[in-house]
């Protein structure tokens, strides 16, 4: 049994390893890896195209200036490392290399200058002086520090050159050649020359410390230092003094060392500069992409807030996208308004002169856009546009979730806001009629009551409201009178406390509801009962006269005694003002047969 179990386990292991190899070595996986590498290579090529091949500068001057404005966080550290390197040179000079007054003065000056630079950099960082450490200042400091340290190292080399040797030296060196012949030469008085050469080579290492300095001045300075080193070495006659002829390799060792080290430093400086510039380019591209994403996000949010009310849009933004349940909300008191332009259908006609009806739709769009612009006022911020159906404008107020006494108190102000909005819509339409030489007439119906609001649809979500209140508001519009605002009895009961003038229309037959008592909202009066906003039937824009309106008036208005605290007026003879008025004025119209809904 144990053997069988071992055999089965080995087979399972072999199968799993085989499947793993198959998964990792499938042609599709290899193709995906190749494509990803190819995309990365092309991205690198496109980024390299933004740089000059020789100078490694950006082709865009603005981007180059922004790159130079970056702060070098490691410049102070580079100066501190240069000070440590200078101190090490001084230690080597005092312990090994023959001393000279000029080199000693250079060493002391170099150390003092580096200490002063560190103090200056510390003060600029603490005080945050703007413009005290620009790219030009950093480059000049870098060049001056490198020249100082290299001068100390070059002074050590000069002290060990043949012109400083003692020609009266009594010691000599015997050189045994492979052929058996012996040669003798004078012993070098400066037996530490190779240390001086190495110090001079390492002196150029200071260039590699300053990372943010451009590679172009580094390479120019490195070329100058290398040429100066070789010229001094050749003028001193060191290679001839060492002996061995023109092809003796030992005489060329200092030159080869400085050349190799200079090439390595130049390549390092170029690679570092290229890496820093590519990193900055990637950072700029990432920032631009992030800005584009933020811009797209803001545009999407703006579109979403235009499609949905603010609290509904916020709900979808804060919710989990994987758990998008049906959004709905019930409201107990919501004012609903339907405003239509009944005579727009007579205006709309498809002719070649109006681009097959496009110009008519353009005018309708201007009307709806002006209504939307009116809603942008701070006073109407609580009103929500629901939708437009043809030439009918639907809006509601009170759709912000509230509870308790706040909701009871807000229904009066909300419904008053909706009434003022409806009144001002007439003024907006009058202005459009005046500018376009038209005679469009507005017909408005308002109702208040409970509704259910929700969002329907996944691809094109639509925020809408449902309920009997919406149906009755729509009937108030369809059974209304052109140029008038028809409201239900509940709306009249709420707004009577807000100094609004009403005219009792009477009972109107409403489909599905039977006969309903309705009122016409005439306008709003101030404390002295002077109408500041009113809907005048005698407007010159409306072609519908008083007779046309009276033919659609209802019957059975409540008696005067049934309305406590109100003053009754018979007919429309408003020319005779009573001596005293209350805050609410109720007008009654002559009794005519009730109107059936079309």
From TrEMBL:
Q: Which GO terms describe its cellular component?
A: plasma membrane
SUPFAM superfamilies per UniProt: Nucleotide cyclase
PROSITE patterns from the UniProt entry: GUANYLATE_CYCLASE_1, GUANYLATE_CYCLASE_2
**EC code:** 4.6.1.1
Q: Name one GO molecular function term.
A: ATP binding
What Gene3D superfamilies does this protein's entry cite?
A: Nucleotide cyclase
The protein's required cofactors? Mg(2+); Mn(2+)
For this UniProt entry, which segments traverse the membrane? 74-96, 102-121, 141-165, 193-213, 220-239
Pfam families in alphabetical order: Guanylate_cyc
* Main location (coarse class): membrane
| Compartments it resides in | Membrane
What are the alphabetically sorted keywords of the record?
ATP-binding, cAMP biosynthesis, Glycoprotein, Lyase, Magnesium, Membrane, Metal-binding, Nucleotide-binding, Repeat, Transmembrane, Transmembrane helix
One of the protein's GO biological processes: intracellular signal transduction
Q: Where is the Guanylate cyclase domain?
A: 335-477
What superkingdom does the record give? Eukaryota
Task: Give membrane topology per the record.
Answer: Multi-pass membrane protein
Q: Which residues form a coiled coil?
A: none
Tell me what reaction this enzyme catalyses: ATP = 3',5'-cyclic AMP + diphosphate
Q: Which PANTHER family match?
A: ADENYLATE CYCLASE TYPE 1 (PTHR45627:SF26)
| Family, as annotated | Belongs to the adenylyl cyclase class-4/guanylyl cyclase family.
What's this protein's name? adenylate cyclase
List the taxonomic lineage: Eukaryota, Metazoa, Chordata, Craniata, Vertebrata
Gene responsible for this protein? Adcy1
């Amino acid at each position: 049994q144990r053997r069988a179990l071992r055999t089965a386990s080995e087979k399972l292991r072999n199968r799993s390893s085989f499947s793993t190899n198959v998964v990792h070595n499938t042609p599709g996986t290899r193709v995906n890896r190749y494509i990803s590498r190819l995309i990365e290579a092309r991205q690198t090529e496109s980024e390299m195209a933004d740089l000059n091949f020789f100078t490694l500068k950006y082709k865009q001057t603005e981007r180059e200036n922004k790159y130079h404005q970056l702060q070098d966080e490691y410049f102070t550290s580079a100066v501190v490392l240069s000070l440590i390197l200078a101190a090490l040179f001084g230690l080597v000079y005092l312990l090994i290399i023959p001393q000279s007054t000029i080199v000693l003065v250079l060493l002391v000056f170099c150390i003092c200058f580096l200490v002063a630079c560190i103090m200056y950099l510390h003060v600029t960082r603490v005080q945050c002086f703007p413009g005290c450490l620009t790219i030009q200042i950093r480059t000049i400091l870098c060049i001056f520090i490198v020249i100082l340290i290299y001068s100390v190292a070059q002074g050590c080399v000069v002290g060990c050159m043949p012109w400083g040797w003692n020609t009266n030296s009594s010691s000599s060196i015997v050189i045994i050649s492979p052929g058996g012949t012996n040669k003798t030469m004078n012993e070098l008085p400066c037996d530490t020359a190779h240390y001086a050469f190495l110090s001079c080579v390492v002196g150029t290492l200071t260039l590699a410390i300053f990372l943010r300095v451009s590679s172009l001045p580094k390479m120019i300075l490195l070329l100058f230092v290398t040429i100066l080193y070789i010229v001094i070495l050749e003028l001193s006659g060191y290679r001839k003094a060492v002996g061995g002829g023109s092809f003796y390799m030992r005489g060329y060792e200092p030159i080869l060392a400085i050349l190799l080290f200079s090439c390595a430093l130049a390549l390092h400086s170029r690679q570092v500069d290229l890496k820093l510039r590519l990193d900055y380019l990637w950072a700029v591209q990432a920032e631009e992409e992030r800005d584009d994403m933020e811009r797209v996000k803001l545009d999407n949010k703006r579109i979403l807030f235009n499609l949905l009310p603010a609290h509904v849009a916020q709900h979808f933004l804060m919710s989990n996208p994987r758990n998008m349940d049906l959004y709905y909300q019930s409201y107990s008191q919501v004012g609903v308004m339907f405003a239509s332009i009944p005579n727009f259908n007579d205006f709309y006609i498809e002719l070649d002169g109006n681009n097959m009806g496009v110009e008519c739709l353009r005018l309708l769009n201007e009307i709806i856009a002006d209504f939307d612009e009116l809603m942008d006022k701070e006073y109407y911020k609580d009103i929500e546009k629901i939708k437009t159906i043809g030439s009918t404008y639907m809006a509601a107020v009170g759709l912000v979730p509230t509870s308790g006494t706040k909701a009871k108190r807000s229904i009066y102000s909300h419904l008053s806001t909706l009434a003022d909005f409806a009144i001002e819509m007439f003024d907006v339409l009058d202005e459009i009629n005046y500018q376009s030489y038209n005679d469009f007439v507005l017909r408005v119906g308002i109702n208040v009551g409970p509704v259910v609001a929700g969002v329907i649809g996944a691809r094109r979500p639509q925020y809408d409201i449902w309920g009997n209140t919406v149906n009755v508001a729509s009937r108030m519009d369809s059974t209304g009178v052109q140029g008038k605002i028809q409201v239900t009895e509940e709306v009249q009961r709420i707004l009577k406390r807000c100094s609004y003038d009403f005219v009792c229309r009477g009972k109107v037959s409403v489909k599905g509801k039977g006969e309903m008592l309705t009122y016409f909202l005439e306008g709003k009066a101030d404390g002295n009962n002077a109408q500041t906003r009113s809907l005048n039937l005698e407007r010159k824009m409306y072609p519908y006269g008083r007779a046309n309106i009276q033919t659609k008036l209802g019957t059975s208005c409540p008696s005067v005694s049934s309305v406590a605290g109100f003053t009754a007026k018979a007919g429309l003879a408003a020319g005779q003002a009573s001596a005293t008025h209350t805050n609410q004025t109720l007008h009654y119209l002559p009794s005519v047969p009730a109107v059936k809904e079309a």
